[in-house]
Amino acid sequence: MKPQNEENKRTIRNLVIFAIVVAASGWLGYGIDRWLNNPTQPLGRLFWLVAPLGAVLLLRAFAGDGWKDFGLNPAFKGNFHWYLLSLLLYPLVGGLVLLIGGLSGLATFPNFSWALLFSVFGSGLIASLVKNIFEEFSWRGYLTPKISSLPINAYVGYIITGLIWTSWHIAYWLFILGPTQIRQATGQDMVTFMAFGVLNLVVTSIAYGEIRLLTGSVWPLVILHTLGNALVDPLIAQGLVHLAAGNSLALLYQPILTLVFFLAAGIWLHQLRVRQTLG
């Protein structure tokens, strides 16, 4: 068995390699799409999506990381309640945020119908599921267990995870979404949107990571992330929720409350896992 310090050095080296690939993938993908100049064949976006998981597979196969903590096993036994939480967390948080918005007058729902809600959900479900298999087996399948194996504070580890996750999103925010689409969907300028984006990825890394460590599986996070993308994210973009015009608080209350609720959930999950570990 290798000494612990040698294993830590290898883990840090491989994490640096992974972080470089992740940060570069979006910019390289954007360059590929610009070079091909063919919007019907977004090969650059495909490269951006698969490059992190490709790096994970290579690092696990050839750089000494191995497969023990990959998280491929669904681990259903004893984890039903965590799967249930993964199914309910985004609907609960989203419902609370919208309820507070409606009661405060910051949001209205003039076009809401259950049929339209399920239509929005169904239309994005499959694409979101496929995307999140690639994404979650990179972040929760690799970053979470590797960073948690290092002798650092858990919250510092989640900040690192969130920042690496952010580096992967930057080119997506800037070039795939772009400032016009972001303003139309959220009412926010690019700087505000990206600031909340960074905070969101750092904060949600806590809850996501704790569920990963509690279950030993990535699949609850694939479910959690898919529901977040397919159900909650499109509500405003599809016109089901209207934010109060001319009210700056209306543009910010949703991301702020979502951050607060997810931070509380993440801290609770971390404390629960620590208690289980100690006792």
Compact summary:
The protein has 279 residues and is mainly alpha-helical. It is built from 9 helices and 2 strands.
Question: What would you say this structure looks like, in words?
Answer:
The structure is a single chain. This protein has 279 residues and is an all-alpha fold. It has one domain. Helices cover 79% and strands 1% of the residues. It has helices at residues 4-36, 43-62, 80-104, 114-148, 154-186, 190-215, 219-232, 234-237, 248-278; strands spanning 107-108, 242-243. Strands 1-2 form a two-stranded antiparallel sheet. Helix 4 packs antiparallel against helix 7 (219-232). It is globular, with a radius of gyration of 19 Å. The two termini are 28 Å apart. The relative contact order is 0.15. The model has no long low-confidence stretch (mean pLDDT 90).
